[in-house]
Amino acid sequence: xxxxxxxxxxxxxxxxxxxxxxxxxxxxxxxxxxxxxxxxxxxxxxxxxxxxxxxxxxxxxxxxxxxxxxxxxxxxxxxxxxxxxxxxxxxxxxxxxxxxxxxxxxxxxxxxxxxxxxxxxxxxxxxxxxxxxxxxxx
Length: 138
Known about the structure:
Blueprint: H1 5-16, H2 23-43, H3 69-78, E1 83-85, H4 86-95, H5 100-115, E2 120-121, E3 125-128, H6 130-137
Antiparallel strand pairs: 1-3, 2-3
């Protein structure tokens, strides 16, 4: 019985110890792979988020004692009252995108640089140091 050509080549290759690929099967797999890749590519296509363009910082524009704009804004708000509940300071910091303890540390560190005293002191109720506050915003 006569064998089809690909089967005959495969049988000959086995006798010689070689490998024969069925190119029709290979081509079919490549076509399937391309179709699946296209489908998955459309499903999992990631839109590249537009990178936010940071606003240019103008040195000294609204900034106090070397603080960045967010910390300067927080300090401006804090000096308007002699006493603050911690929850109020937390809300203020959060509204400016700051962490409360870190923001207070940054502001008080700047105050120590300017006048050698903290601007705010206390735990649950924060007291404003008038002398330091006046020197900071002057």
